[in-house]
Amino acid sequence: AKESGRNRYSFFTADMQQFHTRNLLLENALRRAIERDQLSLVYQPQYSMVNNQLIGFEALLRWYHDDFGQVSPAEFIPLAERNGLIVAIGEWVIVTALQQLAEWHRAGYRQLNMAINLSSIQFRQENLLQFVTNAIEFSGVPAAKVELEITESAMAEQPERAIALIAELKAKGLNIAIDDFGTGYSSLSYLKRFALTKLKIDQSFVRDLLTDSQDKAIVNAIINMASNLGLKTIAEGVETAAQRDLLKHLGCDEMQGYYYSKPLLADQASQFIQQAL
Ligand code: C2E
Ligand code: CA
Ligand code: CA
Ligand code: CA
């Protein structure tokens, strides 16, 4: 027993060692990813339940490295948050997503919106408001066509500052959505103090919506609360027509998920727009 215990321990440390080595290698590679042009964005369609219309896209980061291959954002974003690289990467995301939206607007699809994810680290940056407003001005798209997705934890960190920052972003015309809504620990009383436009219902509640009565109750409560507070709702991770139908029945305003489309490369997204609109 002692022997196997020790083996287990050495397996464990070998795993930990591998984990640290990979992280170090990834971190060094990530430092050069922007200049080497390895980052890209994919765009996932978002639909309104009014007329079942394509209304815009969420920009999602992708990183392709020659040795590591495709690295998941779930792996490299936390890494980039720990070492601060997320600020430069996030700025690249904002500029690139707005450029793409401007291109679609110039092609005549001026109704389209772009949702952009913001890390809590970016949200802490003093110059965020200035950077975002400059980037929007430079791109030429109306601020009202841009939505920032922020998590509850980003808002909960320094609530008073977050309230002021969100109010300023809103005053510039931007839309603010709470991402992964329902998974954080923030107090619901915050909802009325933040100048929000939308709650994004986390996909963990959508997944078993048809079979799990508790998930259904939670989604129903979120949608009713949002509606009473004058906020829109979007459900993420919608994969089936049955999920869409139930969400629509519950009064959800917008949807996103594999049922409509997986995230698309820019060219594919352009083709998708031509077919959908
Ligand atoms: P998220 O913002 O909650 O994005 C939704 C994730 O669900 C995306 O994963 C998307 O590809 C995936 N997804 C979309 N539809 C479906 C579906 O129908 N079923 C299932 N099972 N999954 C679906 P992805 O692209 O791997 O991104 C993971 C996370 O990485 C994002 O979660 C977000 O937190 C973060 N992320 C991605 N891009 C950015 C970015 O530009 N900036 C920041 N700060 N974070 C980002
Ligand atoms: Ca998101
Ligand atoms: Ca989400
Ligand atoms: Ca998520």
TrEMBL record:
<feature type="domain" description="EAL">
    <location>
        <begin position="23"/>
        <end position="277"/>
    </location>
</feature>
<protein>
    <recommendedName>
        <fullName>cyclic-guanylate-specific phosphodiesterase</fullName>
    </recommendedName>
</protein>
